[in-house]
Amino acid sequence: MDTARPAPQPVFAFGRNWQRFVRAGVDQARIDAAVASLRRLLVTDDLRGRTFLDVGCGSGLFSLAALALGAERIIAFDPDPLSVAAASALRAEVGTPPHWEITAGSIVDAAFVGTLDPADVVYAWGVLHHTGDLWGAIDRAAALVRPGGLLAIAIYNEVDGILGSSRQWWYLKRLYNRAPTAARWLLEGVMMAQRGMRDVAVLRDPRRRWSERPRGMRYHHDVRDWLGGFPYEYATPGAVFAHVHRRGFELRYLNTGVGHCCNEFTFRRSV
Predict the structure, then answer these.
(1) What are the residues whose beta carbons fall under 8 Å from the beta carbon of 261, sequence distance 6 or more?
(2) How many helices (H) and strands (E) would you count in the chain?
(3) For residues 154 and 225, is the Cβ–Cβ distance under 8 A?
(4) Interval 206-210 mean pLDDT
(5) Which of 20, 78, 154, 164 could be 125's S-S partner, Cβ–Cβ 3.0 to 4.6 Å?
């Protein structure tokens, strides 16, 4: 009998990438971009009196955005110790606010999740599809929302087709994570060159990608995160809506991306 177990799948070093991002500098323009993104997603300019749970906090940039919007208490956590270190460094840069807590933990760890109090806003942008248990992670995040509170998530869109399907990207991401450093750099360069050629084709200056700050991010770190993000799952907007709606939530905001981009959702939990 063959009892060999399948080889474990690679896991991308998100924390290392976030540490590089924070070390490169988080200026006020990036913070402002993150705040604008959070306002749009939550459909509010004010988090005063509310608790904000940052699931998979990464660099801590959106905990900082919640702080800027006046959140009464911020609880940020990430399973990667390097992400916790990156977020802690960013927190230290703004004076280590006592109502902003950062800890190590995973949304798919039932024991850890059981230690958390329900929050007014549960935020998990581009996180739950990297846990290896997308639907279970959504359920645990949803369970942490107080009645009347908000669940804000972003999930990779599912794409079918002969070329460029989500499944093909799954294999590419796995290849990237298994590749040596030089090959990773090559893949990053190819992806940026491809995007640059696409910009030129539509008469857009490709250099703008290096100066733009979508959600406060930095272009090269974003490319590395996209290529490396593994485990990798995806879903159609309809599948995500139906799954969360059945759990007593109503849709408050939806922004569907193009191609493999993330679909953004904000749900309100029924009272």
Answers:
(1) 156, 157
(2) 11, 7
(3) no
(4) 76
(5) 154
Dihedral, CA atoms, 215, 206, 160, 154, nearest 10 degrees? 0
Asked if 126 and 262 count as a contact pair (C-beta separation under 8 A), the reply is yes
Does residue 5 lie within any of the structural domains?
no
Residues 87 and 204 occupy one common structural domain: no
Residue found by looking up tokens 């193009």 in the block: 258
Closest CA to 157 of 89, 43, 241, 101: 241
CA separation for the pair 204, 147 (Å, rounded):
45
Contact (Cβ atoms closer than 8 angstroms) between residue 60 and residue 86: yes
pLDDT of 20 strictly over 80: yes
In this predicted model, what pLDDT tens digit does every residue of 102-111 receive, in sequence order? 999 999 999 9
* Number of CB atoms found within 10 A of residue 140's CB: 24
Backbone Cα Rg of the chain: 19
Amino acid found at 37: S
Distance CA 104, CA 119 (A): 18
Contacts of 81 (CB under 8 A, 6+ apart): 15, 104
